[in-house]
Design a protein that fits this description.
The structure is a homodimer of 291-residue chains.
Chain A lengths: L3 H8 L16 E5 L2 E11 L10 H17 L3 E12 L3 H15 L2 E9 L5 E10 L15 E4 L5 H11 L6 H4 L5 H7 L5 E4 L4 H11 L3 E5 L12 H6 L6 E5 L10 E8 L5 E3 L2 E2 L12
Parallel strand pairs in A: 3-4, 8-11
Antiparallel strand pairs in A: 1-2, 2-5, 3-5, 6-9, 6-10, 7-9, 8-10, 11-12
Helix pairs in contact in A: 2-3, 2-6
Amino acid sequence: MIDEGAFIAALRTLPLHAGARGLRDDAAILEIGDETLILTHDAMIEGRHWLPGQDMADIAWKLVAVNLSDLAAKGAEPVGILLGHTLGDGDDRFLEGLHEVLTHYGVKLLGGDTVAGDGARTLGCTAIGRATHRPVPARRGARSGDAIYVTGPVGAAMLGFEALRDGNAKDSTAYRRPAPLLAEGRALAPHVTAMMDISDGLLLDCWRMASAGDGIAFEIDSARVSVADPSRRGECMRWGDDYQLLFTADPRTRLPVPATRIGMVSNADLSPLRLDGKILTPLDSIGYQHG
Amino acid sequence: MIDEGAFIAALRTLPLHAGARGLRDDAAILEIGDETLILTHDAMIEGRHWLPGQDMADIAWKLVAVNLSDLAAKGAEPVGILLGHTLGDGDDRFLEGLHEVLTHYGVKLLGGDTVAGDGARTLGCTAIGRATHRPVPARRGARSGDAIYVTGPVGAAMLGFEALRDGNAKDSTAYRRPAPLLAEGRALAPHVTAMMDISDGLLLDCWRMASAGDGIAFEIDSARVSVADPSRRGECMRWGDDYQLLFTADPRTRLPVPATRIGMVSNADLSPLRLDGKILTPLDSIGYQHG
């Protein structure tokens, strides 16, 4: 059995569409006539991406929302989704959650497939969107001198996860029902030099964005990062599932949506990422590794 | 737990795109600028859609091929695919098969997702194609007086499955490496009144096509059906996985590809399907029920 990194590296040797910046890395971009389509596919697996016994309505919401978040990071407006659904317990709740998320975001169900299966279920979703701005924002593109921003606090999903797991009185909504920042992504698209959604933790995604860039490094000032629980700042910056947008822009740009400036892009360094001046790497447990 | 029929019926109450004739029924059709896109998603699950121990190269081939076959039935030319891949044993062989099928059909990998999981694996594929003829052929559309055709023999996949399962000397290629009839689908699209690929058995898919139509019934003459093993005609007409194209056309149409005429479309009857004059229903074990 080969590991995931080797698998993805091998996939990149296949006939890839020019717009396909790889699996997991980025959404696919497809020029069709005068339009630019964005395509993403994310899968969730029982026991890994959700807690046993979780309400399947929340799983349906999250499955669609995480795909819409990929579209948000591209400044795309959603066209529709296709589902790959393994039938099982809680399908009635799944349908309710699906109805809620589709109507909430005005997204259409285009089609898909249902299969019957035993054991841990895998749920897949393909989302299709239409780019509203070209060039389409990408992970790659940050320039030395750019400022680094996040649209909101990180760590709320972590607190929500703990509330759900422990059954405590805190609100678990941020973990159960992430909100893809579609309007924010569209508003930001013309102003950013790079953009992605934070799915696997702020620091890991900063590392990825800096690594995708050309001869640059990210310098993050932890005190500037807005976190859901200031007493657990380090954890908040390492937990994923918040789906805030991380982006870079010329520091003189007047941004159309509120965002927190958390650092600066500098020229390439020993490492693509420094936190408060200290080099960090993915070996320092900087976020959620898939998975 | 609700059953698959109820699940799909409930999905149809969701906000569906106008082109989405439902999950499983048909591919989704999306008008984008001047182009018409076809989108399909099919999933395969370990132990249900493939035999334990099967070469994962064949599974990769089939996963992509069955999605391309859905595009073929729409007369579409493939643009690319997205994968939803659960990592596991045989991934090296999976990559080899993926490379083979993508290069063989000139299809590009656009993106996707990989997840780690235990237990039975689910593999998903979304295929995107560009319509070459409008209106796009559909299951619906057959008219009374049309002739019913199949592009080639049915039952070859059944014999291939048995060869693989029993380890006998027969050729298992038809089961392991189905060939989507992309060129045939494109050539036929301007001439047909209805078209679909035969994935679940000739008789079941005839029943579905007739049921999708408006006030029509299919009259099939079993002696005319080309089968891989004439001594097992009934089984050959009920086994799936052959991916021949089933279509209807005006009997005076000169067809651009070879096809066998197997019957006639008549006006609505007690049942949408008669075989040699006898009424058949899905309760008569006419094909592979998903699944």
